[in-house]
Structures are given as structure tokens and as C-alpha cells.
């Protein structure tokens, strides 16, 4: 019996010391699909967010913003609520069009995926539903320990003809819970632009989805170009009640400033 | 006296006796001539540029915060705009500076730049249609539609709808061509289907049932198919517009009116307006005509040929601006003018813009008489509202609406891109774009931070702090209810409608907020250095935290250009006279050797060494004064001729340095005096050694050499 236990220990040690076995693309896609599905609601979604941008020698940029999503139609709207100077400003995604609205000028302008949101180092995609499988091709990098957590490291490259803020990503996915813990985003040249951490994942039962909806409780983004800049995104409240039918229109967003 | 006459006589005789003296004289003449002419030109350039810089933006002296990271550079530096700290106590500074004796006026300023996206022509037309519908439904967003009756609005809606349908026809034709070339491979089926849908009468018959919905379909499905949106970089100077116009008296309004006293408003630099905001085809026609007036020929000039080629191929801006009626009218007019039966407007326009040296004048005239009235010649017209979006100091994007009251230029600098590239804006709008955090706003943000109580995590400790021992990743959340309705009070819209447009600001409001720099106009410009020192002294004494610099220093690299050229001239003159000194020295040595017998004989009949020394030096001085004098005279003659004739600016950039279309060089008396001193020094120094050698010639040696 004793020799059996020793042998077993030896086997476990041996396996533990063996480098991670490369994961097939299909397995990676499965993990990404799980990540996407968890964060997709199917019905309507509303979240109250706190954004804080810290930059060297500058005053902090602080915003409160409401995110509206209708995942079934791929619609998204970001509407700033605080401070007063930002109130009523918004971003609206309709099909492949990304619009910004400023009640101070009454103008709608087209914007791009790369545009910063509200003067912080966030992009539209940070607040939208997760579309990793739809937008990227994964490849296995290895396994790594992040703090006390075992993670799978995955490289992602954008698929052809898809417009995203960053074409190359590197994800550290928690092996146990399959949540993204760390995300690095690169320009096409390979230059690292942002490192983001997702330390809190929260789940909520969704009536429309009839399953749990996952969302990151907080995102901490570190700017890799301007090293002293960092951004904090806090999800204060998530509300899954049905939204107005006409909500994702220019007219609705404008009406918030009347 | 008789000794001097004798020495001068000897010098004169020897001057003409040796051909070596002619070589030495030639060198002196060339050096002096160069110094007088080039030095004079540089002085004139310096004066002209001073007039340009002082008269267009800088004033005599500029002040800015002494806490600034960078030095002030009014025309931008290598790395873009300098990082200047805001000056928050301008009224106190102004009061203190006005006590300085030589200060006449202090004009507050701040400059920055913004990218303006004009939107593609379909977006712009759909926005116009949207505003018309809104105005009809009582939600006025475009002040230009104020006061129009429902009938007038309906007429305009019908006309704009026709315009959009005409655009769709153009897009359909484009798509047909693309489909034929690409064989259906690269065109998104959704794009094809969307265009097919809006080409049907049914879409337009039902348009009004849900006008906003129909517009959104066009905005999201059709407008992205046109990719002609233009981005323009707009540089602006925020200032007290009244004070600016009285202090910078070269400024003149070209179109429109000045901004009414105390109101928000914008004045576009005329050159920028023409270059960036005018219909490209029209602008190129203007440039072709200007070039022809200056003697350039399309047939022989590659740049002009390129203009013609671009005019022929880039006619979409015109075609997309016309509705069906205007398209028919323009087609008919061009068919008649060109004696053609071609039915396609694009082809007709391409033929029309095939301008040659012979037909240019006629086509230019025809374009402005017949075609221009059918299109918008400028993206922004006087009276329009311009939306300017800029990055605030904090990095966020801030936008303001400003009414364009007119265009302006500086007399003599109409063609200078440096003076004509910066537009003028009221200080209140500038401050909105600058995004300075007032105490109230800062407190609002602090309160929001306190309410949230988020903890800070540093980059270095992030992984340990977030994923180390004691951290859990997954948590259950409770569903919440977000009631944001009360958060939206409509403050932005109210500001746009009530506050910004109508408000007249008092002097203390205009001067009371932050600025980045200020121009100081002085009573006596010759006392510039003393006044700068005095301002800096007052700043220290009263703790104003400002720094005063001359217009030249404030101009950054531009201000250093003349100093650079002056340095080059100095080196060139130094080089020429350095060589001259060596040559003169050698030549004089040779001359002295040749004259050993004469000098020996002179010494034998009683001439003292001092006489020999004075004799040789006098010869040099006479040589220098004579040839140097001729150089000065020649240089002065050339300068007088240049002053009479003027040097025309070779290109638009030179307008700024010439302070107008011509540089009128002035002879500087200072340069003449310096030239004379240099000649005397050079000749004396280079002759000193040969002269000393001459004094050592003994009568004995002179007699021996004879044997």
C-alpha cells in the first residue's frame, strides 16, 4: 500500500512538472464561447458604471455612465449621467455605425472603435457584450500562475474585415472558473497598448436568459503607452428589466437632454 | 601734417605700383560688399518678420505662466503645442502690468487646435433633413430655421428629400460600376439590399409615417457607403476679440462682420477658409487663374497639370450636392456651353474642368456665374454655426458650437499660411474647450469619488493586490434597479439654446477666467528689453507667477531663423576676412621684401623705425579704406536698387518673412560703420607683422643686397 502511494505521488509530481499540454483550437473556442455566452443576456441589460481616469500631473477624470444593451439585436448605448458637464452625452452603436452625441452642440458624429470613451482609456468594446469567438481566432500560449490563480494564456488575432479597437489580444483565463483575469491588447505592430485586470466577476440570474448572466464587477486598465495613466471601471448596479422599445435610437438619446 | 601728407603720397604711389595690392583690395571689396548687402538684407528681413509676428499674433511682448513646463512657442514647436500652465489671475496681472510705464495694452489669449470632421455629404444632407423635420415638429435644433412657417419647412423638406434621392441615384450608378468590376465578390449583400430598398418609391411614399426611423435607416445603411468625409485641422486663438482687433491694427474683416462686443463667436482666417473650406474644384480653378496671372502655364507646369487632372476626376462633391432639378439644369447648361449631347453630368463636368491656358479664363468665369450658384461653395458659411471638438487639458473631448461671424486677414499677409492659418475665437468658448477645472467642478468630481470610495491599486502591486492570497474572483450579485430618469436635467441643451447663443459677457467675465498667455503692446518698441525686465521684476515683486518674453523668443523656432542666418553671415564674413588676412599678410611680406632696398635707403638717409612702421600701416589703411569704401558704395548702391525695385516673395511662406508680397530692403547705417571697423581691423592686423619686419631692415643690408 505504502509503495503504491509513493508511486502515485511520483506520478502526480511527474505530471505536475510536465509542461502544459497544448490545447487544441477547438478547446480554446469552447472556452471563449463559454466566456461570451456567460456575459450575453439575450434580453435587455442596463448597468450603472463609475469611471475614473488617473493621469500624471492632471486632475482625475471622473464619470458616471449608464450602459444599455439589447443583446438580441446587438444594440448598445452609453449615456453619461455625471458630472453635470457630461450629462446627456452619449454613444450609440447601430449596426456597424458608432455615433456620439453631445447635447451641448446638438450634433451627432460618427466615431470609431479606437476612440476613447469619456476621456478615459476605455473603448466601446469594454462595455459591450463579449464577442470573442465572433471577432477573433485563438491560439494556445501556455499556462501561467497569476497571483494564486492558475490560468490558461491564449493569444487572439482579429478575423478579417472586422473592426475592433485592438487587433491582437492576450488573455489570462482562470482555469477553474473560466473567467478572464487579465487581458493585454496590442496594436497590429505588436506594440502593447493596454493591460487590464478583471479581479471580480459577478453573476446574476436573468429571467430572459433563464440562466446566469456574468459581468465584471471591476476593470482596472493600465496604459502601456503612457505608463503613469490608469483607469478604473466599477459596475455599481446591473438592472435586467426590459428597456423602452425605442431606446436604441437617436431620437431617444436626444430626448434625455430635453 | 606734412609728414602725414608725405606718408599718404607714398602710400598712394605704392598702392598703384604693385598688382598684389589689387588682389588684396579685391578681397576687401568683396568682403565689405557681402557684409553690407547680406547684413542689410537680414536686418530688413528681421524688421519685416518682426512686423509680421508683432502685428499678427504676438504683440511686442508675451507673458505666460512661469510654472509652465515648456517655453511659449506661438507658432508651435517640434512636438506640437507647448505645455503651458493656465494663468488664473489675469485681472490682477493686467492691473499690475498696466502700471508699467511703457505698457500700452494687455490682450489675453490662448491657442489650441481641433480636428473638425465635416461628415460625408450624405450625413450632412440627412442631418439637414432631420433638423427640418424636428423644426416642423416644434423641436428646433438649427437656429437658421427659426421663424420659418410650416409651409416653408415642408417645401424645404421636399427639396432636401429630392436631393437625397438624387444622391441615391448617384450611389446606385457607382454600385453598378463596382458590381461590374468586382463581379459581386467584394460587396456586402446587406449594402446592396439597403440601396435597393431606398431606391424604391415605396420607401419614400412611407417616409413621413416614421420620418425619424426612415432617417436612421438612411444614416446607418446608406451614408456609410460614401466615404468622402473630410477632416480639417483648425488652429484657433481664443482672445478678447474687441481688444485684439484694436491692438492688432493690421487685422481686417474680409467677409461678414466682427463678433458683436461681449458675445461668443468665431472669425475664420480667410486663407484657411479658402484653402480648407471651399469646394476643392473651385479652389483649384482659383489657383490655376492666379498661377496664370503670375506667368505660369498649364502646358508647362506639372503642378498646374495636376490641378487640372484632380479637377477632372474629383467631381463628386459637385454632383452629390445637386438634387434632380439642379442636376437637370446643370446638365443642360453644360451641354450648351460645351456643345455636347452627353447626358451624364459627371462626364460633362470632367470635360468642363479640362482647362487649358486658352480656355481657363472663360471657364473660370462660367463656373462662378452659372454653376457655383447651384452648389455650396463653402462647407461653412458666414452666419453658420461651427461645431469645434477638441481635447481638453484632461484628455476628454469637449465640443462647442460657435457662430461664424466672418473671415479676416492681416494686411500684407493675406497669402501667408503662417499668419492666415490661425482663426479667432472668443475667450469663453476657448475656455470651454480648454476644460479648465473650476473649483465647483473639481468639488463635484471629488464628491463623486468620495461617494464611490474606490481603492487605488498601483501598477506594480496590481497582480498581488488583486489576485494574491485572500482574493476570490466569483461573487453572487443582487439584481438592482437603476432609476436614471432624474439624472438627466437637460443642462447641456439649455446651455446651447439659452446661455451660449444669446449671452453678452461683461469685460470682467471675459477677463476673469483662465488664459494661457497674453500679448503686451508697448508705447515705445525701442525700450523692449527694459520693459521685459520691468515686467519680470513686477511679477516677482507682486508674486504674479508670470514670465515675460520678447516677440522673437515667443515665436519659437521661427523667431530664431533670423538669428541663425545672422550667425551664418557672421561665419561667412569671418571666413572671408580670415582668408583675406592670411593673403594680405603674405602679400605684404612679399611687398616688404621687394622693398628692402628702398626701406634700407630710407633708413640710411635718416628715417626712423617709427616712420617705416607708420608708412607701411598707412599704406594698408589707405588700401583698406579705398577698396572697402568702394565695397560699401557698391553694396549701398545694390541695396538702394533693391529698395527701389523690391524683392518679390518667391512663395506664400515667404510672405510672412517679407511682411507682404515684396521685401523692401533698407540700408542700415550700423552695418556700414561695422563694415568700416572690420576693414580697418583686418588690414591693420594683417599688416602689423610685415610692418615690424620692415622696421628691422638695416641700411647695411640694403646696400649688400644691391651688390
Indicate the mean pLDDT of chain A: 88
* CATH top-level class of chain A: Mainly Beta
The portion of residues assigned to helices of chain A is 10-25%
Number of helices of chain A: 4
Uncertain runs of chain B = none
Principal-axes geometry of chain B comes out as elongated
Beta-strand share of residues of chain A: over 45%
Major sheet summary line of chain B:
10 strands, mixed
| End-to-end distance of chain B | 37 Å
The count of helical stretches of chain B stands at 29
- How many separate structural domains of chain B? 4
Under the CATH scheme, the architecture of chain A is Clam
Radius of gyration of chain B, whole Å: 37 Å
- End-to-end CA span of chain A: 80 Å
By secondary-structure content and strand pairing, the structural class of chain B works out as alpha+beta
Report on the structure:
The complex is a heterodimer of chains A (about 260) and B (about 700). Chain A has helices spanning about 1-15, 25-40, 130-135, 250-255; strands spanning about 45-55, 60-70, 75-80, 90-95, 95-100, 105-110, 135-145, 150-160, 170-175, 180-185, 190-205, 210-225, 230-240. Chain A is α+β, with helices and mostly antiparallel strands and about 260 residues long. Chain A has a single domain (about 20-255), classed as outer membrane lipoprotein receptor (LolB), chain A (Clam). Chain A has a 13-stranded antiparallel β-sheet with strand order 6-5-4-3-2-1-13-12-11-10-9-8-7. Chain A is globular, with a radius of gyration of 21 Å. By secondary structure, chain B is α+β, with helices and mostly antiparallel strands. Chain B folds into four domains: about 1-50 and about 560-700, no CATH class; about 90-120 and about 230-280 and about 390-445 and about 500-545, no CATH class; about 120-225, no CATH class; about 280-375, no CATH class. Helix content of chain B is about 60%, strand content about 10%. In chain B, the strands form two sheets. In chain B, strands 1, 2, 3, 4, 5, 6, 7, 8, 10 and 11 form a ten-stranded mixed β-sheet that branches. In chain B, strand 6 and strand 7 (about 395-410) form a beta hairpin. The longest helix of chain B has about 40 residues, at about 20-60. The chains are: A alpha+beta (about 260), B alpha+beta (about 700). At the A-B interface, strand 1, strand 2, strand 3, strand 6 and strand 11 of A face helix 8, strand 7, helix 18, helix 19 and strand 9 of B.
Amino acid at each position: 500500500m505504502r509503495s503504491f502511494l509513493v508511486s502515485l505521488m511520483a506520478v502526480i509530481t511527474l505530471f505536475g512538472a510536465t509542461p502544459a499540454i497544448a490545447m487544441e483550437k477547438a478547446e480554446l473556442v469552447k472556452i471563449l464561447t463559454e466566456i461570451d455566452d456567460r456575459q450575453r443576456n439575450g434580453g435587455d441589460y442596463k448597468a450603472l458604471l463609475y469611471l475614473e481616469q488617473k493621469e500624471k500631473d492632471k486632475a482625475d477624470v471622473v464619470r458616471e455612465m449608464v450602459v444599455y444593451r439589447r443583446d438580441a439585436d446587438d444594440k448598445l448605448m452609453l449615456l453619461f449621467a455625471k458630472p453635470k458637464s457630461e450629462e446627456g452625452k452619449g454613444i450609440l452603436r447601430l449596426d456597424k455605425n458608432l455615433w456620439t452625441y453631445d447635447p451641448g452642440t446638438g450634433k451627432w458624429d460618427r466615431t470609431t472603435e479606437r476612440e476613447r470613451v469619456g476621456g478615459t482609456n476605455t473603448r466601446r468594446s469594454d462595455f459591450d457584450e463579449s464577442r470573442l469567438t465572433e471577432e477573433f481566432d485563438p491560439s494556445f500560449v501556455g499556462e501561467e500562475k497569476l497571483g494564486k490563480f492558475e490560468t490558461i494564456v491564449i493569444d487572439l488575432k482579429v478575423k478579417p474585415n472586422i473592426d475592433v479597437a485592438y487587433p491582437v489580444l492576450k488573455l489570462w483565463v482562470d482555469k477553474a472558473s473560466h473567467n478572464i483575469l487579465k487581458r493585454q491588447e496590442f496594436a497590429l505592430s505588436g506594440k502593447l497598448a493596454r493591460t487590464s485586470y478583471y479581479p471580480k466577476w459577478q453573476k446574476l440570474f436573468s429571467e430572459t436568459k433563464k440562466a446566469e448572466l456574468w459581468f465584471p464587477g471591476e476593470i482596472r486598465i493600465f496604459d502601456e503607452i503612457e505608463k503613469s495613466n490608469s483607469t478604473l471601471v466599477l459596475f455599481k448596479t446591473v438592472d435586467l428589466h426590459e428597456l423602452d422599445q425605442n431606446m436604441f435610437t437617436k431620437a431617444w438619446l436626444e430626448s434625455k437632454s430635453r | 601734417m606734412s609728414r602725414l601728407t608725405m606718408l599718404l603720397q607714398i602710400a598712394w604711389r605704392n598702392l598703384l605700383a604693385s598688382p598684389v595690392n589689387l588682389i588684396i583690395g579685391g578681397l576687401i571689396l568683396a568682403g565689405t560688399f557681402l557684409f553690407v548687402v547680406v547684413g542689410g538684407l537680414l536686418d530688413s528681413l528681421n524688421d519685416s518678420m518682426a512686423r509680421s509676428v508683432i502685428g499678427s499674433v504676438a504683440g511686442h511682448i508675451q507673458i505666460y505662466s512661469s510654472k509652465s513646463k515648456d517655453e511659449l512657442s506661438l507658432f508651435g514647436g517640434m512636438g506640437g503645442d507647448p505645455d503651458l500652465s493656465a494663468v488664473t489671475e489675469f485681472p490682477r496681472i493686467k492691473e499690475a502690468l498696466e502700471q508699467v510705464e511703457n505698457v500700452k495694452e494687455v490682450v489675453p489669449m490662448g491657442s489650441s487646435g481641433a480636428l473638425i470632421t465635416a461628415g460625408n455629404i450624405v450625413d450632412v444632407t440627412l442631418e439637414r433633413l432631420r433638423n427640418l423635420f424636428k423644426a416642423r415638429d416644434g423641436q428646433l435644433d438649427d437656429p437658421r430655421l427659426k421663424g420659418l412657417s410650416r409651409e416653408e419647412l415642408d417645401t424645404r423638406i421636399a427639396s432636401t428629400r429630392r436631393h437625397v434621392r438624387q444622391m441615391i441615384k448617384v450611389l446606385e450608378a457607382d454600385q453598378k460600376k463596382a458590381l461590374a468590376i468586382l463581379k459581386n465578390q467584394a460587396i456586402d449583400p446587406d449594402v446592396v439590399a439597403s440601396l435597393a430598398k431606398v431606391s424604391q418609391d415605396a420607401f419614400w411614399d412611407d417616409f413621413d409615417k416614421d420620418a425619424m426611423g426612415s432617417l436612421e435607416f438612411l444614416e446607418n445603411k446608406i451614408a456609410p457607403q460614401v466615404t468622402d468625409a473630410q477632416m480639417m485641422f483648425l488652429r484657433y486663438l481664443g482672445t478678447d476679440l474687441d481688444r485684439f482687433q484694436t491692438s492688432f491694427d493690421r487685422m481686417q474683416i474680409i467677409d461678414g462682420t466682427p463678433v458683436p462686443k461681449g458675445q461668443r463667436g468665431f472669425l475664420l482666417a480667410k486663407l484657411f477658409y479658402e484653402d480648407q473650406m471651399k469646394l476643392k474644384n473651385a479652389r483649384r480653378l482659383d489657383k490655376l487663374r492666379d498661377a496664370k496671372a503670375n506667368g505660369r502655364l498649364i502646358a508647362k507646369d506639372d503642378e498646374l497639370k495636376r490641378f487640372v487632372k484632380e479637377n477632372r476626376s474629383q467631381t463628386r462633391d459637385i454632383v452629390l450636392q445637386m438634387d434632380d432639378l439642379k442636376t437637370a439644369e446643370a446638365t443642360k447648361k453644360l451641354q450648351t456651353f460645351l456643345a455636347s449631347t452627353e447626358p451624364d453630368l459627371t462626364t460633362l463636368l470632367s470635360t468642363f474642368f479640362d482647362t487649358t491656358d486658352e480656355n481657363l479664363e472663360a471657364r473660370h468665369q462660367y463656373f462662378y456665374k452659372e454653376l457655383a450658384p447651384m452648389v455650396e461653395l463653402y462647407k461653412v458659411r458666414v452666419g453658420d454655426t461651427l461645431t469645434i471638438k477638441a481635447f481638453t487639458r484632461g484628455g476628454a473631448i469637449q465640443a462647442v458650437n460657435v457662430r461664424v461671424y466672418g473671415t479676416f486677414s492681416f494686411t500684407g499677409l493675406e497669402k501667408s499660411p503662417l499668419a492666415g492659418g490661425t482663426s479667432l475665437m472668443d475667450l469663453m468658448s476657448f475656455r470651454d474647450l480648454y476644460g479648465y477645472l473650476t473649483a465647483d467642478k473639481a468639488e463635484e468630481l471629488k464628491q463623486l469619488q468620495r461617494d464611490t470610495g474606490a481603492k487605488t491599486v498601483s501598477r506594480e502591486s496590481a497582480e498581488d493586490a488583486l489576485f494574491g492570497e485572500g482574493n476570490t474572483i466569483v461573487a453572487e450579485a443582487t439584481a438592482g434597479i437603476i432609476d436614471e430618469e432624474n439624472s438627466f436635467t437637460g443642462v447641456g441643451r439649455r446651455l446651447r439654446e439659452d446661455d451660449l447663443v444669446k449671452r453678452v459677457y461683461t469685460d470682467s467675465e471675459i477677463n476673469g477666467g483662465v488664459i494661457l498667455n497674453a500679448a503686451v503692446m508697448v508705447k515705445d518698441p525701442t525700450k523692449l528689453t527694459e520693459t521685459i525686465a520691468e515686467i519680470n521684476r513686477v511679477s516677482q515683486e507682486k508674486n504674479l507667477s508670470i514670465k515675460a518674453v520678447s516677440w522673437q523668443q515667443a515665436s519659437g523656432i521661427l523667431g530664431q531663423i533670423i538669428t541663425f542666418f545672422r550667425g551664418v553671415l557672421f561665419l561667412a564674413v569671418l571666413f572671408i576676412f580670415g582668408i583675406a588676412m592670411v593673403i594680405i599678410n603674405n602679400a605684404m611680406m612679399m611687398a616688404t621684401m621687394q622693398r628692402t632696398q628702398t626701406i634700407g635707403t630710407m633708413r640710411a638717409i635718416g628715417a626712423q623705425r617709427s616712420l617705416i612702421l607708420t608708412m607701411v600701416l598707412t599704406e594698408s589703411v589707405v588700401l583698406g579704406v579705398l577698396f572697402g569704401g568702394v565695397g560699401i558704395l557698391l553694396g549701398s548702391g545694390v541695396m538702394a536698387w533693391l529698395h527701389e525695385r523690391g524683392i518679390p516673395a518667391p512663395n506664400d511662406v515667404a510672405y510672412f518673412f517679407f511682411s507682404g508680397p515684396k521685401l523692401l530692403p533698407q540700408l542700415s547705417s550700423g552695418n556700414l560703420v561695422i563694415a568700416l571697423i572690420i576693414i580697418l581691423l583686418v588690414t591693420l592686423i594683417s599688416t602689423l607683422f610685415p610692418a615690424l619686419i620692415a622696421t628691422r631692415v638695416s641700411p647695411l643690408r640694403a646696400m649688400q643686397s644691391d651688390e
